């Protein structure tokens, strides 16, 4: 057994690591400093084993574009020498592996547009969404009241339910009135507005249950004359840096910032004059709700004998 020398220098301090071949082959990286204006692309994309070279190149190109740049098949075909068929196939590859998502959404004015979402790290995005969903489930479980513990049958004997007292001539309670048609018509754009908030801020991704719960509150804003753009600005402006419960924040803002109802513009019903009647004493026309004598005949003493000077002058 050789003698151990703990003070011997390590090999890595004096010699560089060399290839076993006398003429090393392969890629050699020549790295230079770059001015601002570059894109960071992960190795999980550039070294993806299932994506084609065209798909990897398109993904890197799309990630380098600014927000709102067009990335449809026709625009990409004008940019690259490949045809539309190959570019469409490469985009489908990116969609299948989670690097791209194309969503059809309806704007506030009723037009259908295509929104392209580019993910630079799909695995990290899926893990973050799963973590947020788990935190939301824990929060709901903590808020919900615990279920009542069942009573052991050995301690408390089961009792038959007492019969309900009979009420003579009991009338069933009427069902609640259905919502007004105008309010129900507001629910569709309100739900679409809530579902599209995630495009304004990815943290505002709401579940179906939260959208159904918040839709009546947004419909109330629309009923009071607020435009969809005003509602969107009220819900997305000034969000905190750390947003853990987006549904709770939206509920607070919809309740506290609710605008007042618009002033009533209903006009008072016009007052119609009384119909024309013929006086029984002088045969003159006058307005009154019912037939009878005019004011002059009611004040005149000669009308007691059903004769009026005006009537005699008219007959003469």
Describe the overall structure.
The chain is mainly α. Among the domains are: 38-127, Winged helix-like DNA-binding domain superfamily/Winged helix DNA-binding domain (Arc Repressor Mutant, subunit A, Orthogonal Bundle); 181-256, no CATH class. It is built from 12 helices and 4 strands; from the N terminus they run H-H-H-H-E-E-H-H-H-H-H-H-E-E-H-H. Strands 1-2 form a two-stranded antiparallel ribbon. A two-stranded antiparallel ribbon has the order 3-4. A hairpin with a 5-residue loop joins strand 1 (100-106) and strand 2 (112-118). Helix 2 crosses helix 4, helix 6 packs across helix 8 (208-223) and helix 8 (208-223) packs parallel to helix 10. The chain is elongated and about 145 Å long. The N and C termini lie far apart (161 Å). The model is unreliable at 12-16, 176-183 and 307-316 (pLDDT under 50).
Name a few traits of the molecule.
single chain; mainly alpha; two-stranded antiparallel ribbon; 12 helices; 39% helix; disordered C terminus
What is the topological layout?
Blueprint: H1 43-46, H2 53-63, H3 73-79, H4 84-96, E1 100-106, E2 112-118, H5 122-143, H6 181-195, H7 197-200, H8 208-223, H9 228-236, H10 246-256, E3 276-278, E4 285-287, H11 295-299, H12 309-315
Antiparallel strand pairs: 1-2, 3-4
Relative strand content: 5-15%
The gross shape turns out to be elongated
| The CATH superfamily title of the domain at 38-127 | Winged helix-like DNA-binding domain superfamily/Winged helix DNA-binding domain
- The CATH architecture of the domain at 38-127 can be named as Orthogonal Bundle
Q: Which percent bin holds the helix content? A: 25-40%
Class based on secondary structure composition and strand pairing: mainly alpha
């Amino acid at each position: 057994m050789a003698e151990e020398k703990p003070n011997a220098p390590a090999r890595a301090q004096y010699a560089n690591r060399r290839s076993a071949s006398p003429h090393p082959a392969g890629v050699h990286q020549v790295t230079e400093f770059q001015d601002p204006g570059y894109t960071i692309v992960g190795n999980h994309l550039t070294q993806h084993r299932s994506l084609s070279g065209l798909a990897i190149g398109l993904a890197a190109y799309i990630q380098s574009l600014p927000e709102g740049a067009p990335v449809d098949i026709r625009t990409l075909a004008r940019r690259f020498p490949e045809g539309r068929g190959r570019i469409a196939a490469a985009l489908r590859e990116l969609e299948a592996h989670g690097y791209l998502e194309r969503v059809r959404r309806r704007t506030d004015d009723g037009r259908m547009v295509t929104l392209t979402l580019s993910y630079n790290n799909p695995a990290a995005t899926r893990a973050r969404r799963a973590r947020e969903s788990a935190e939301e489930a824990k929060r709901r479980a903590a808020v919900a009241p615990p279920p009542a513990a069942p009573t052991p049958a050995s301690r408390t004997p089961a009792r038959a339910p007492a019969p309900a007292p009979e009420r003579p001539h009991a009338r069933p309670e009427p069902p609640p009135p259905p919502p007004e048609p105008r309010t129900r018509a507001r629910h569709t754009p309100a739900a679409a507005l809530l579902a599209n908030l995630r495009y304004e801020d990815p943290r505002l991704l709401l579940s179906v249950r939260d959208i159904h719960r918040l839709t009546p509150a947004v419909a109330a804003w629309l009923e009071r004359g607020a435009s969809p753009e005003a509602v969107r600005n009220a819900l997305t402006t000034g969000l905190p840096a750390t947003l853990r419960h987006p549904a709770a924040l939206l509920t607070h803002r919809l309740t506290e910032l609710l605008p007042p109802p618009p002033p009533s513009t209903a006009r008072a019903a016009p007052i119609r004059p009384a119909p024309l009647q013929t006086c029984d004493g002088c045969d003159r026309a006058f307005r009154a709700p019912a037939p009878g004598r005019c004011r002059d005949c009611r004040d005149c003493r000669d009308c007691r004998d059903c004769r009026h000077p005006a009537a005699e002058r008219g007959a003469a």
